[in-house]
Write a structure and sequence with these properties.
Blueprint (H helix, E strand, L loop, with lengths): L13 E3 L5 E3 L1 H29 L5 E3 L2 E3 L7 H29 L4 H34 L14 H37 L1
Antiparallel strand pairs: 1-2, 3-4
Helix pairs in contact: 1-2, 1-4, 2-3, 3-4
Length: 193
């Protein structure tokens, strides 16, 4: 149980150092380290996914016609690219917002805004990933009932690059899912204090 001498005026636990001065509590430090790590991973995954998708092309000749499929020919792939770029930019901004939050004490409103930000980024990432997955599945396997023939057997390098980009985007989604779980836990712990 927290006693008045080992809590701040905002309710966060503090640990006593050997010299008797108070330092931020270990759970608080772990929370912010997890937040920073997951955001940096989300940035890294989206930064890696963007150039892989943009450079995906493989010219091929079919029945005397030369075609060069690109990501820009699919609205779903353009949407995923936009989602990756948006999540990357807002992840950098959220890192800048997180730093002052770690210095100030308990601010439930700030944690709630961070939770809302993470929720929007999670929904954006999963919608982009789902759209790209649907198009990728149809490209790989086709749909005979709708006379949609698979074409990944003709442009395997192109399809593999799009697959790698989509997998990296899913990894960014899982980072944001973990951030949502952390933020929800933090808000619950604030509610019970």
């Amino acid at each position: 149980m927290a006693t008045p001498e080992n809590t701040t005026e905002n309710g966060f636990l503090k640990a006593k150092s050997p010299q008797g001065t108070s330092t931020p509590g270990r759970p608080q430090r772990s929370f912010f380290m997890a937040q920073i790590t997951l955001r940096i991973l989300a940035i890294a995954f989206t930064v890696a996914a963007i150039p892989i998708m943009v450079t995906a092309k493989e010219p091929v000749s079919l029945i005397g016609l030369s075609i060069a499929p690109r990501y820009s020919q699919s609205l779903a792939m353009k949407f995923l690219l936009g989602a990756d770029a948006t999540v990357c930019a807002f992840s950098v901004l959220s890192l800048l917002f997180l730093w002052p939050l770690s210095r100030s004490g308990s601010q439930t409103t700030s944690y709630f805004l961070l939770f809302l930000h993470d929720m929007v980024m999670t929904v954006l990432m999963i919608s982009g990933c789902a759209a790209a997955t649907a198009v990728g599945y149809l490209s790989k396997y086709g749909q005979r009932e709708a006379f949609w023939n698979p074409f990944c057997s003709y442009v395997t390098k192109f399809c593999h690059q799009l697959l790698i980009s989509t997998v990296l985007s899913y990894l960014a989604f899982f980072c944001y899912l973990a951030l949502n779980i952390l933020a929800a836990y933090k808000l619950m712990s604030h509610a019970t204090e």
